[in-house]
Structure formats: C-alpha cells, structure tokens
C-alpha cells in the first residue's frame, strides 16, 4: 500500500511526476520485513541452490555426498563446530569437487595447498636439519667446558690487573695489604688471587 502523505525529496523513493513519494521509509522497511518473514524458507532454498550451482552440484548430489561421508567432515570425521553445513571442497585449479569439509578443515586445506610448493622445497632442503648449525653440540661443549673461577669480590678486576698483581708481588717490595688498597679489593681476595685459588686461568 502506497503512502498518501506527501514527503520532502530526501524522504522519497522514486517519486512520481507530482513529487509525491510512492512509499516512505517506514513503509519500505515494513514491506521488506514482511517479505523476509513470508519468504524466509524460500530464500534459504534459493541461496543453497545458488551456492551449489557454483560447483556444478544439485541438492541431491550434495545430500548423496553427505550420506556417503556419514554426515561428518571427510578429513577430521567431525561435524562442523560452527553449526554450518559442510563446505564443498574443490580443486581451485580444475574446479573438480572432492568432498565435504567442515569450516576448519576447509580453511586449513586451502592454506596448505597455497603453501605446498614452497613448503615441499623447504622441507627437501632443511628436513634433515639445518647444515649451518651444530644442533646443540656447540651448546653442550660450551656448558661442559671448565669455567674460570672468579671471586665476586674481584669481578671488577681485569685479567691484566691480575697478571700485574702477581708479577709485582713475585718481584717483592709490595704487600698484599698494599695491593688490596691499590686495586680496591679485600686483602683476602688478593691472597686468593696470588695462590691461584681464583683467576687460575690467568698466567
């Protein structure tokens, strides 16, 4: 039923020559709502037929495939967790229909096929392991290697300081207390260095 009230141009929809709108926005919305409610089932059927026709399938063929698969995904053997009908899987190069998959498997298969050439090349090259690394051997050797013993109290010293300290003490004329004061460490730390209880890797 058309509106009988004249409306301004922004409110109109295909106005007649007299400038009166055939339907206002409210009427158009009500008409669409009524149509969707009345023909909802038909819309669903038409939409399904259209989607299947893109793969050259009829509804009967789809149902036959679904029955043959036991009503579940051909890959994971589960129903679609999203509640959607199983998707039609097809070869994107040839268009050949292969089976019905759930949304998850259909998406993952598409990603796999897109990456398959480069993935196969990568695996053929590095499948046995990267040739440029030792696969843990270098790390094991590093862990097993003896670590130089250093005192926390002398951590600020360098190897040159330690070598010089030992040489000066061996030459005489300096005490452990004097060395400790000069290098800013304790006298006990100096004694450990001179006895090679610490910094034993320094000649």
What report would you give on this structure?
By secondary structure, this protein is mostly helical. It has 8 helices and 2 strands. The chain has a two-stranded antiparallel ribbon with strand order 1-2. β1 (87-90) and β2 form a beta hairpin. The longest helix is centred in the middle third of the chain and has 24 residues, at 103-126. The protein is elongated and about 115 Å long. The termini are far apart. 10% of the residues are buried.
Key terms:
203 residues; 8 helices; mainly alpha; elongated; two-stranded antiparallel sheet; 4% strand; 49% helix; 2 strands
Question: What ranges have pLDDT less than 50 throughout 5 or more consecutive residues?
Answer: none
Shape: elongated
- Proportion of helical residues: 40-55%
Give the mean pLDDT: 82
Quick structural overview:
With 203 residues, this protein is mostly helical.
Question: What secondary-structure arrangement, pairings included, does this model have?
Answer:
Layout: H1 25-38, H2 40-53, H3 59-68, E1 87-90, E2 97-101, H4 103-126, H5 137-144, H6 159-171, H7 176-183, H8 187-194
Antiparallel strand pairs: 1-2
Helix pairs in contact: 7-8
